[in-house]
Specification:
This protein is α+β, with helices and mostly antiparallel strands. Among the domains are: 79 residues; 152 residues, Rieske Iron-sulfur Protein. A hairpin with a 4-residue loop joins strand 7 and strand 8. The longest helix has 31 residues. Belongs to the Rieske iron-sulfur protein family. This is Cytochrome bc1 complex Rieske iron-sulfur subunit. Its main location: membrane. It holds the Pfam family QcrA_N.
């Protein structure tokens, strides 16, 4: 007799030898029989939930009270942004209090007695079970996988490795890890401001009231940039080094830093919007506003390019400029803060120069 013909007998024999043990007897917990223990557990749960609520309140207070630029040192970690540390700790305590409170509540106070819902038997008839077993056995033997194990192993390997062509392009497509591009540009002390795309230098004496120039650093504009630095570096420069130069009436400039970093009312600012990086290239001469065409962020040039409308959260960085011995506009230094869209940590030691006042 074949093996599958004995299946019903084996199942029936197993059912006879292994009776349903049923549920174990319920063991009362201390809180179930001692009211004072139940009260203590209740107080503990309330304390955990209260701790969570207090941590949530502390998170909100810290968000509005602590200076986002506040920094400090933590033993074993080093210099960190304390604003982010406090927010992380308070949020973590808030979530921990909720989790521990819920678990303690469930394990000490909620009913823990197991319940059984009686259901009808789902067992198929003996004829159906035998037919399914026969077909499975026939299919297994017909595939010869029981005799040719190499097929089974190679098929498993092929199916397992099939995922690699799907995963590798995604992972590789993420590109290299960010480098200093998040913080630095090609602007350096002494580089002339060159008109984009002609590459002509700009004399301060030739800049009239209300004039607007789109400029790039010397050596990084026009065909020269592609020939000297290559297409990739030239395009990268175009995306991060672009600057807008405007001459304002010095009497309407309200920021002393803006006057000090400009030259006789001529000021230069990064064109890379601090929202998502679109070029801020629209200047309104009557209002002295710079507009980003992508999402309508608006910056006031008389207030050090402060954001006055739109989703951008940070002013455009100013490029410190002066003139050289021949009267051409040059950069005093590079940008003293990262340009472009804001991200979680914008400061880097040594990038922001100390206040010279």
């Amino acid at each position: 007799m074949s093996t599958h013909d004995n299946t019903p007998a084996l199942v029936d024999d197993a059912q006879d030898r292994f009776a349903n043990p049923g549920l174990p007897p319920h063991v009362p917990r201390r809180a179930d029989v001692d009211e004072s223990a139940a009260n203590r557990a209740s107080v503990q749960v309330v304390a955990l939930f209260t701790l969570s609520a207090l941590a949530s309140i502390a998170f909100l207070v810290a968000y509005f009270v602590i200076d986002p630029e506040l920094r400090g040192s933590i033993i074993g970690i080093g210099e960190v942004n304390l604003f982010h540390v406090v927010l992380g700790l308070t949020m973590g305590v808030s979530l921990l209090g909720i989790g521990l409170g819920a678990v303690h509540w469930a394990k000490t106070l909620m009913p823990d007695e197991e319940m059984v819902e009686q259901r009808h038997s789902l067992r198929s008839s003996d004829e159906d079970r035998q037919e399914v077993a026969r077909q499975l056995s026939y299919g297994w033997r017909g595939s010869q996988l029981n005799r040719r194990t190499a097929i089974l192993g190679s098929a498993g390997g092929a199916l397992g490795l099939f995922a690699l062509p799907l995963v590798v392009p995604v992972v590789a497509g993420l590109g290299p890890r960010p480098r200093d591009e998040l913080y630095t540009t090609n602007w350096e002390p002494g580089l002339r401001l060159m008109i984009d795309p002609s590459g002509a230098p700009i004399r301060a004496a030739d800049v009239t009231q209300g004039s607007v120039f789109h400029v790039m650093p010397e050596g990084w504009v026009g065909d020269e940039a592609f020939e000297v630095h290559g297409a990739e570096e030239a395009m990268a420069s175009k995306s991060k080094d672009q600057v807008i130069l405007v001459k304002l009436d010095p009497s309407i400039i309200n920021s002393q830093k803006q006057r000090d970093w400009g030259y006789e009312g001529i000021v230069a600012y990064s064109k890379v919007c601090t929202h998502v990086g679109c070029p801020v290239a629209l200047y309104e001469q009557q209002t002295h506003h710079l507009l980003c065409p992508c999402h309508q962020s608006t910056f006031d040039m008389t207030e050090d390019c402060k954001v006055i409308f739109g989703p951008a959260k940070r002013p455009l960085p100013q490029l410190p400029i002066s003139v050289d011995d021949e009267g051409y506009l040059v950069a005093i230094d590079g940008f003293r803060e990262p340009i472009g869209p804001s991200f979680f940590e914008r400061e880097r030691p040594g990038l922001l120069m100390e206040d010279e006042s």
